[in-house]
Specification:
By secondary structure, the chain is mainly α. It contains 7 helices and no strands. The chain starts with a helix and ends with a helix.
Length: 111
């Protein structure tokens, strides 16, 4: 009986972690994005260390179908001009770093 309770508890912990996004398969392209120092400095605070958003954050996941549907130009406009609660980063990120960040966001959404 005791081992059944333990097995059920482990099962629900795994389910809960999966629902919260902690037990997802790692995406090597997302790892490249999140390793970018520009991402750490400007994006991770809201979009999370793993780019999948943060708990209780209004910032969307950068690894999602919605983000995948955005063009590189859409991403550029959002990053440069801001959107909703997201601030403008146009004057804070060089063109080269912005291009790299956009390429990494697009790559992180490749399946």
């Amino acid at each position: 009986m005791r081992s059944n309770v333990k097995a059920v508890t482990v099962y629900w912990v795994v389910v809960l972690l999966s629902v919260l996004g902690f037990a997802r398969e790692r995406n090597p392209n997302a790892d490249i994005l999140t390793a970018n120092p520009i991402y750490h400095k400007n994006c991770a605070k809201c979009h999370g260390k793993n780019a999948e958003s943060r708990l209780f954050s209004h910032a969307p996941s950068l690894v999602s179908d919605k983000t995948a549907a955005l063009s590189a130009e859409d991403l550029r406009v959002i990053i440069v001009n801001g959107k909703g609660e997201m601030p403008k980063f146009g004057g804070n990120i060089s063109a080269v770093d912005l291009d790299a960040l956009i390429q990494q966001i697009k790559a992180a959404n490749q399946k």
